[in-house]
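Dear colleague,

As promised, here are the two records you asked about, laid out in our usual form so they can be pasted straight into your sheet.

NAME FIELD: protein one
SEQUENCE, THEN STRUCTURE:
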Amino acid sequence: MVVTQENVAVNGSRRLSPQEIADTLRERIRTGDLKAGDRLPTQAELAEEFGVERGAVRQALRALQEDGLLSNVSKGSPPRIAERVPGLSGEPQPTMVGLAPRLTEAFSSPHVRIDAACLTSETLMVALSEPVRLIHEGRIHPESIDVRILLPSRDINLAFPVPVEAPDDDNPVHQRWLEMRNAQGHVLRHNLRSLRSSHGIDVKVRFRALPFTPPVKLYLLNQAEALIAYYMVARREEATDTGILDMYDVLGTESLLFSFAKNAGERDAAFVVQSQKWFDALWETITTDLTLS
């Protein structure tokens, strides 16, 4: 079974939000998996697929309706995909929206190479579920997949997320981040490694630990495209079993993703080359082995 964000909680209780469900469906529409005129599954079927209550599905469908992606919306039957679907523009997209179609295109190559430097692998984990699904459906057929991921070391004092007020003892915000980092990494690695036995694909998934908190997230696809987004730090609260965490944190899935392609001119090509050199230098020098506990 392919383990995804839809059926594995990263902290034992986390569920996909309506926005994340809407983003997943939106990408299926924009990549052509759901075509104009197609009828969506029922709310019950979607709730079962994503492991959520129907209320979350209804909110997600409402968001898609507001975006003009659905038509024939009624209580009597599932809506259809609108005949005229707004296309992707050259403008930057939220990371959760923009990454999946770029990864899907990268996975159409016989030899896939993905390098990523980020705070956690949550966005990458979710976005990879789309090309993995297409591989299982036989629609794309890579021969090899090589994924390298740089994540902050567990032993450093992170710049973010951090408590607004320094804790007296153990840092619950750091522990929360560490659990998420490890759980998401395990899911990502499992999803890709399972392709070895199911499809005979040569898969490598490697992690190394950064000695600093990355201020941006960077994705390098097949050494031909660089995607970069800034982490926007904000104060927020989160309810946990032990109380309220008041912290300075980032919402990486909502950061705007800027794309630079080697074939888009000298400026973009230089950015891709230098970004790849930067990543390779970190991988080969000051980073250390990372074990997901």
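NAME FIELD: protein two
SEQUENCE, THEN STRUCTURE:
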Amino acid sequence: MKSYRLNRLFNAKSNRCFDVAMDHGFFNERGFLQGIENLEQCVKTLVAAAPDAIQLTVGQAHYLQSLRGKEKPALVLRTDVANVYGTQLPRALFSRMIEQPVEQGLRLDASCVVVNLFRIPEQPEVTDQCIQNILRIKPECDRYAMPLMIEPLVFQPNQKAGGYMVDGDLEKILPLVRQAVELGADIIKADPTDDVGVYHKIVEIAGRIPVLVRGGGKAPDKEILERTEKLIQQGAAGIVYGRNIIQHADPAGMTRALMAIVHDGATAMQAGKLIKI
């Protein structure tokens, strides 16, 4: 049953999940590689800080799964690759899924697979590709009891904010999150809203499906910690942060600080003391 794998993702004490995204090398953007040039060492550093899960790709999952011991974080496997993140977009955009994604996930002992659901201005074809990806992977996830994480992402216009900038408009995020639920998500990984105080509406629209919040772009520590504290208070079931950890001067300390907020109810001020910079 899917619940068996979900139990590996969600902390027994808090029933929340902290997933560190390290799958950025999949997308062929030089800026995404900052902090993970040596991915093997980066994985070891984060494993020592003990997040609930680490998000990796088929070509890099071995750095996590080859480590000994039962205490290591669960694997969340990225199953799709896209070319939609650059400041200057190519002539043709795509979102492609790897072949036999769930079977590859099973062979890698993944606890969950993740796939995107893009909303990009003037690019409905990419949304169509995302939906086709989800329609294809969903029955396989059900067949093999593999949890499906869908990642609804609302982009700002590229000419305004090129380079993968989140649009935090609640009115745009709400219907995309609901579509992800309707398509069969077991977990939602959703954008943060510009007004953190309305995030409970995202949680509500998802119904019984747990909502993990994306970290968005790189931001100062104080902003990230305070935002995370408020998001947890708004009912988020956890977080999926990438660049704000892997590009941090103290990634292990930032991980421990966020874990304290997500699982222990620490305040942003209390958590900040765990960061060594």
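A couple of things worth noting about protein two: Strands lie at 17-21, 53-56, 74-78, 80-82, 95-97, 112-119, 148-154, 187-190, 211-214, 238-241. The chain has one domain: 2-272.

Best,
R.
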